[in-house]
Amino acid sequence: MAKPPPSLTISHNPTGRTPPFDQLTARTLAAIFEDFYVRSADTITLYICASYDGRQVLRQQLFHRWFYYFERDDFAKLDEIIRDSTGTVYPLTLIVKRKNPHRAEVFEAFMRVTSGYNADK
């Protein structure tokens, strides 16, 4: 089983506890992804972390741990953040199958949208 990259450490954890790695959650996410992507190579997943309690970066890191747990090389993942006018950070993750015939255009559009959103307003 793969370990998450070292950069995926908890940067803000007000509880002081390390969240456990839940293998059942990882397996559930993998099954959901497999089901969605088996239906069509054109499937795209956009994951936006909930921010209601200020722990969205922690959620993103946990999602990355689950994602990398399976060492799948048939998915391509792109991570980005957007900030609102108050400076609140919203982590985003885009996932596509590597065989998606529109992968390059999807990634380009994702980067264009997120870059435009982060531009000075």
UniProtKB/TrEMBL annotation:
This is DUF6169 family protein. The lineage of its organism: Bacteria, Pseudomonadati, Bacteroidota, Cytophagia, Cytophagales. Pfam families: DUF6169 (PF19666). It comes from the Bacteria.
